[in-house]
Structure formats: structure tokens, C-alpha cells
Model the fold of this input.
Amino acid sequence: MTQWSGYFGLILQGALVTIELTLMGSVLALIMAFLAGLGRLSRFFAIRALATAYIEFFRGTSIFVQLFWAYFVLPFIGISLTPLQAGVLALGLNVGAYAAEVVRGAIQSIGREQYEACTALNLGRWQAMRHVILPQALLVMLPTFGNNAIELLKATAVVSLISLTDLTFQAQVVRSQTGNTLVPFTTILIIYFALALIISWGVRSLERRMARGLDGVRV
Amino acid sequence: MSAPIIKIDGISKSFGTFKVLDGLSMQVMPREKLALIGPSGSGKTTILRILMTLERIDSGHIQIDGEQLYHMERNGQLLAADERHLARMRQKIGMVFQLFNLFPHKSVIDNVTLAPILTKGMPRAAAEKRAMELLDMVGMADKAKAMPAQLSGGQKQRVAIARALALQPRIMLFDEVTSALDPELVEEVLNVLWRLCSETDMTMLLVTHEMGFAHDFADRVLFFDRGKIVEEGKPDEIFRNPKQERTQGFLKKIIAAGHRV
Done:
């Protein structure tokens, strides 16, 4: 049994890498989501086109290929990334493309009367967005952002293919060293599930906090 | 005789193939209280929305306080107004909506202070002091910390009025401000309008179906139908002795529907 505790330690180290990737990837995804989501609503055609191209491209190609491209192809044009950097980049850009549509949809779900009140109060476009529209839209985005974060968590498994020692990678190490498949893969299955639960709980409590006083009522 | 504060000159507006306003001209004098009445779809709300720059005009000219609203004079030429010009013109005008349009994520006092802080650079403390005075005037000072969802319709509308007043507009537009309220809540809002009417020298344009209130409140009543002013005059003339057939028909229907005149 002593050998198992060592292997569990290995898997826990993998869990830390997975968590790190998920956090950093989520931050990048969030930034991209707002940039591209707001970009799609821009008055300027060039910005709209750029945002649309980004979203369609990263939704339309495989995360595998994007990751391999970031890690194996970018060095040919002089950009060498560490496995972690490549992983964060691919995951953040990929999930950010999905989340951008969430941002756009949430902003468009805010009623016209809110925009009209802003005009009547002479708020500028950005002031209206920043102080009136986005705070309300954020509440609409949150549940789907939770989904996106869980998607990102699960997608981190692909980074094991570029030799990043995440949960999945470590499980494979344990399997090849012990010959046991059941234990390592069941363990990481449970860990992935537990991490996903933490994300859902976190998002739900954030939602509750932000909805305080609104009572779910749109005035 | 001073110059008109609002001068509308031959404006037209269509939504698709539906012509809402058709070559409309009218003038409003400073401090005048105007009631705009007429059947729905007659264009009265559209006029308020155009004055608030929520809708653009297809043709014609509007002057507010001697300045073009939708046009700018550059080197003797009239150009279409840019956003900066519109923002400057909007400072003179405030609007209260049928459905209040409060910001649901902000408390009552934050609803009132947001625009003065952002658009006039007012310090928060000064903005809050002024907001409390206004909330006091509309009888909502004790609800300053409440969220809009906790208020009744009449209370929301009174907050919305305070919010519009906080920017100290010279012209206030009221778009069917009691139409969405339960009957027992109408009066508290009308009382606030009364105070504004008697205590301030704002120019006020009121679109309403409250004929009794329009009669008491207005210096002049305009009856709209199909995008044109069919009849205008002192409240007594319009309500007691309408000359046009369409005005008579409209008032008859309104009275039949149980509205007090």
C-alpha cells in the first residue's frame, strides 16, 4: 500500500497543474470573451469583422489542433512557448470564443428601455455600458460562464498530449508504472468531478450575491 | 413676448410605410404647460421621443432654445448633428417614461445620482444632497436606500421623476407617466406633477389619457390624430367645446371609457 500513497501524491501534483491551467485559462477566456463580445456589438465594421472572425475560427476548429499548433507550429515563426503557456493560450482562446457569444447575448438581452433611460439621462455610450448595461448583463452571463469554466476544466486534459503533467498525464504515468488502470483513472474521474462541483457552487453563490436586491425582477 | 423654447418646423417621421408624423409644425413657449392628447398611434408619444433624441426625424427642423436640435451650423451650412452636439442639446431636456425605466441594479438614491455624477462631474456628496432634496419633494426620501424592485409602480414613477429632475432640465417630457399604474396609485404621481407645475418654471409637455388632469394642468391642449394637430386651444375650449368632429369623437369615447373630464 505504501507505493499507492506515492502515486496518489503524483496525481495530486497533477491536480494542481490542472487547477492552475483552469484558473489561468479562465482569466484569458474572460478577457477574450469581453473583448470579442463587445467587439461584435461595435459601431465599427472592422472591429465587428475581427471579433466575428476570431469567434468563428476558434469555435470552428478543434482544441486539439489549436493546442498542437500553438506548441509545435508557433516555434517555426520564432515563438516558442512552454507547454503551460501553450495550454493556457489554446484553452483561453478556445473557450473565450464560446463565452464571447454569451457576453453578446447577455448584453442584447437587456431591454431597449434601459438604453433609452441612459440616453434621456445623457449618459455616453461607454458610461451607459459600464454603469447600466454590463452590471445587469453580468447576471445573465454568470450561469453560462459557469458552464464554460467547467468545459475549460475538462478540456485541460488535452494538454497531457504536449507533455504537461496535469491530472490525465499523471494518471497515465501511474497506469504505465503499476499496470493498474482502474485506480488511477477512477481517481482522476472523481477529482475532475469534484473540481467541476466547486466551480458550479462558486458560480451559484456569486449569482446569489449579485442578484441580491434585484429579486429577479426586471423593472 | 419671448421667443419659443421649442420650435418644430415641418417634421415628418415614418416607421416603415407608416407615416407617424406628417409635416408637423408647432411651438412651445418657455414655462408653458402643454397637454398632448389623442388616440394611440396619433404621433403624440413620437414627438416626445423625437425631442429626447430617441427617434430621428426624416425631414424638417427642430429648434430648442434657439439652437438646432438635429443640425449644426458650420460655416453657414446646416449639417447633421453629431453625438457631441446631441449630448449638449440633451442637457436642456429630461424625460419620464410610461414604464419608469429605473435601473433595477441600483438603489433609489443611486438611480438619482448616477447621471449628475457621470455627466456633470458633480461630487458624490453634493449629488446625494441634491438627490435627497428631490426625493423629499416627490415624497420618497424614506426609500432612498431601497431597490426599485421593492417599490410600487407609483413610487417607482416618483423616483423616475426625481431622477430626471436631478439634471435640472429646462424642458420636461412626460410620456403617459400614469398609464401603467394601478388606479389608486395614479394620484400620488399626479400630485408630484402638480407641485412641479406650480413650483418650477420648467416647460412641460405631457402626453396623457388623464383628461381631468390635462384640463387642470395645461395652459394649452393639443389634440393629435394621424400625425397632425387637429385642434388646439385652452383646456376649456378643447374639453367643453371642441370644434372638430374628430376631437368630439375622441372625447366621447374617452368619457364612455370612464375617464373624468
Q: What stands out?
A: The interface with chain A takes residues 52-54, 87, 90-91, 94-95, 97, 99-105, 107, 114-115, 118-119, 147-150, 156, 163-164, 167 of chain B (CB under 8 Å).
